[in-house]
Amino acid sequence: MPQRLKQVDQAIAAWMGRWSVPILRVALGVVFIWFGALKIFEVSPVVDLVAATVYIVPPEVFVPVLGVWEVLIGLSMLYRPFIRVGIFLLFLQMPGTFLPLVLLPDVTFITFPYALTVEGQYIIKNLVIIGAALVVGSTVQGEQPEE
User: Fold this and answer.
1) Cα–Cα dist 67/36, whole Å
2) Of the residues 50, 63, 93, 124, which has the fewest C-beta atoms closer than 10 A?
3) β-strand partners of 115
4) What is the mean pLDDT of residues 82-109?
5) H/E segment holding residue 110
6) Is the dihedral of CA 116, 121, 126, 132 positive or negative?
7) SS3 95
8) For the chain, counts of helices (H) and of strands (E)
């Protein structure tokens, strides 16, 4: 690789190393606040899916509570001292997000077990959120207190 190209490559890699986790943390925060707010204001497209999955609690109670939970996760990601709290809340919530794959396979699969509906794809994307949370969570030990 020519020297100039190598320098550009190193500069880009250094920039990504510096900013990737903060950007990932903010992205997680924004996604959780946004999705949670949709549930709180009763405009989320997943209300029916949640209601069909968690049928023990009335959706008019459960969905807004879930929304508040998600907003708390998001806010925790945006305020560094609370990242651990956000990670904890996220990992308590995540198993429930996969329940429709088990309880509602006719809604989440076109052909079980590999062809997903849009709802199924929406659920499977949570694997990326889990991975992102693991990356962000791996950084909390090395954080220095802000002065």
Assistant:
1) 4
2) 124
3) 111
4) 97
5) strand 109-111
6) positive
7) helix
8) 8, 2
Query: Cβ neighbours of residue 68 under 8 Å, at least 6 residues apart?
Result: 36, 40
Residue from 101, 94, 96 nearest 137 by CA: 94
Q: What is the 3-state secondary structure (H, E, C) of 11-73?
A: HHHHHHHHHHHHHHHHHHHHHHHHHHHHHHCCCCCCHHHHHHHCCCCCHHHHHHHHHHHHHHH
Question: 3-40 and 59-78 are packed helices; what angle lies between their axes, rounded to 10 degrees?
Answer: 150
Mean per-residue pLDDT over the chain, rounded: 94
* Residue 109 backbone zone (phi > 0: left; psi -120 to 50: alpha; other: beta): beta
Distance between the two ends of the chain, CA-based, in angstroms?
42
Phi, psi of 110 (to 5 degrees): -80, -50
Count of C-beta atoms within a 10 Å radius of residue 132: 18
pLDDT of residue 147: 42
Note the pTM of the prediction, 2 decimals: 0.90
Distance of CA 20 to the CA centre of its chain: 16
Nearby residues of 32 by Cβ (< 8 Å), 6 or more positions away:
70, 71, 73, 74, 77, 90
